[in-house]
């Protein structure tokens, strides 16, 4: 499973931070950041989700009020949102 985070879409509500420890607040930008991620295009960050964190990652995606977080399964199918 992988998570994709669109930093440009993020509005800094930090609900994802409360759901998954791999997101953290960047108060200087007023946005969340996804730790240990790779920028794959301008402002879009991707990383693998460890098996033991899949539920937390899904909750983080579901709580994002602007759908800045997308979860994909191992086949590349979009699961959330």
Automatic annotation (TrEMBL):
UniProt keyword annotation of Electron transport present: yes
Record-linked Gene3D superfamilies: 3.30.70.20
Keywords: Electron transport, Iron, Iron-sulfur, Metal-binding, Transport
The protein's name in its UniProt record: Ferredoxin
An MF annotation (GO) of this entry: iron-sulfur cluster binding
Pfam hit, one: Fer4_15
Species name: Natronolimnohabitans innermongolicus JCM 12255
InterPro entries: Fe-S_cluster_ET (IPR051269)
Regions crossing the membrane: none
Protein's UniProt keywords contain Metal-binding: yes
Upper classification of the organism: Archaea, Methanobacteriati, Methanobacteriota, Stenosarchaea group, Halobacteria
